[in-house]
């Protein structure tokens, strides 16, 4: 067990703590950060915990100036016995390493990542909502910390884990806007890295989707603007005939951990799944032929969201709810919260004083 340094204790809940269903997402931040510094010559320093307000990011450093920053988003859930587990943290650690490699930043060893995530949960254990009613979202962020200008790899970095308690997402339905002008990522670019630049590139598209009365954006490929890629913060799945299709990991989209979890659940259920490119025109044609079933987006924050429609302003593709998305939502929730023994290897326990 990684014991928080002396002088730090488990953060008490503020007096006006909302019901789990009213937490939302990202509104309340945990008061501490678990963090570790990396020096070019000294390597990774020991993990520690500080007040969130104690760390600062240099304005003239590469983190802010050039976007030398990569991050992860994962969740900790409480099971029916009150024990806390992280969901697939080692997979998130590996994806952070891949993002870091793409941006020429030091790759945090898996154990540094795991220790920091465990510490962040331990000092915020009371922030983890009760079983079935939400989760603690962790945001490990690796950023250049050297206080100097210059377009080159920084000599000092830090990996810091912030947390926010959040409500259990609802299995809602969304209408998505397929963006045919703006692009999020191109082949050879940063699309597969979880880095701020991708989100900076994507905000205008998301705002355009909202302005047009849609819930979120669907990014299309950068070359033909016809192949579906992913949504703002979700990977996409569509049911065509007796097959479920998802775009391939071609380097332009994020290799979602939830995407991988859903692929495993579909395979386990004997559903035919394939990873291949799919255009808006193929979807429209499948719709005309009466072959379109459910579509859904998946991601850590939203879990699984049914998609009722994708439109590029000219063609509206409407999906039919076959019940598949709702079934998958429930299966995934059970696996994440430890309500089933299936796939328990995906959950890593976080010891706390109440549950050593
Ligand atoms: C751009 C993008 N795609 C996909 C996802 C889904 O990834 P994951 O399931 O690992 O959360 C996210 C969320 O992290 C995202 O930001």
UniProtKB/TrEMBL annotation:
Enzyme class: transferase
Cofactor or coenzyme needed: pyridoxal 5'-phosphate
Gene Ontology BP term (one): L-valine biosynthetic process
Keywords (A to Z) from UniProt: Amino-acid biosynthesis, Aminotransferase, Branched-chain amino acid biosynthesis, Pyridoxal phosphate, Transferase
EC assignment: 2.6.1.42
Positions where N6-(pyridoxal phosphate)lysine occurs in the chain: 194
Catalytic activities: L-isoleucine + 2-oxoglutarate = (S)-3-methyl-2-oxopentanoate + L-glutamate; L-leucine + 2-oxoglutarate = 4-methyl-2-oxopentanoate + L-glutamate; L-valine + 2-oxoglutarate = 3-methyl-2-oxobutanoate + L-glutamate
Gene3D superfamilies the UniProt entry points to: 3.30.470.10, D-amino Acid Aminotransferase, subunit A, domain 2
A Pfam family that the UniProt record links to this protein: Aminotran_4
InterPro entries: Aminotrans_IV, Aminotrans_IV_CS, Aminotransferase-like, B_amino_transII, BCAT-like_C, BCAT-like_N, BCAT_family
Family statement: Belongs to the class-IV pyridoxal-phosphate-dependent aminotransferase family.
Job description of the protein: Acts on leucine, isoleucine and valine.
Protein name: Branched-chain-amino-acid aminotransferase
Organism: Solimonas terrae
Organism placement in taxonomy: Bacteria, Pseudomonadati, Pseudomonadota, Gammaproteobacteria, Nevskiales
């Amino acid at each position: 067990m990684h014991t928080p340094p002396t002088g730090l204790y488990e953060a008490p809940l503020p007096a006006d703590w909302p019901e789990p269903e009213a937490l939302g997402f990202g509104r309340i931040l945990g008061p501490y950060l678990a963090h570790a510094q990396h020096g070019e010559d000294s390597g990774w320093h020991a993990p520690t915990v500080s007040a969130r307000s104690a760390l600062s990011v240099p304005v003239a450093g590469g983190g802010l100036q050039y976007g030398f920053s990569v991050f992860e988003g994962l969740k900790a859930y409480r099971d029916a016995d009150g024990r806390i587990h992280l969901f697939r943290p080692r997979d998130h650690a590996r994806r952070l390493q891949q993002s870091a490699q793409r941006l020429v930043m030091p790759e945090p060893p898996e154990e540094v990542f795991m220790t920091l995530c465990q510490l962040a949960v331990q000092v915020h254990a009371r922030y983890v909502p009760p079983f079935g009613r939400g989760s603690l979202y962790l945001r490990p962020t690796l950023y250049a910390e050297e206080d100097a200008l210059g377009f080159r790899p920084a000599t000092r970095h830090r990996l810091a884990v912030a947390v926010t308690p959040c409500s259990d997402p609802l299995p809602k339905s969304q209408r998505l806007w397929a963006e045919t002008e703006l692009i999020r990522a191109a082949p050879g670019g940063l699309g597969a890295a979880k880095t701020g630049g991708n989100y900076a590139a994507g905000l205008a598209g998301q705002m355009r989707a909202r302005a047009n009365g849609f819930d979120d954006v669907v990014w299309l490929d950068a070359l033909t603007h016809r192949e579906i890629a992913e949504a703002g913060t979700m990977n996409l799945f569509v049911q065509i005939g007796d097959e479920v299709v998802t775009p391939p990991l071609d380097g332009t989209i994020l290799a979602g951990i939830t995407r991988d979890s859903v692929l495993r659940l579909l395979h386990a259920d004997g559903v035919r799944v394939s990873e291949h490119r799919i255009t808006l025109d193929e979807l429209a044609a499948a719709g005309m032929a009466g072959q379109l079933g459910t579509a859904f987006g998946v991601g850590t924050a939203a879990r699984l969201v049914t998609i009722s429609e994708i439109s590029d302003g000219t063609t509206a593709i409407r999906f039919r709810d076959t019940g598949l998305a709702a079934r998958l939502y429930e299966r995934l929730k059970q696996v994440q919260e430890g309500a089933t023994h299936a796939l328990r290897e995906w959950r890593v326990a976080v010891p706390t004083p109440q549950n050593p």
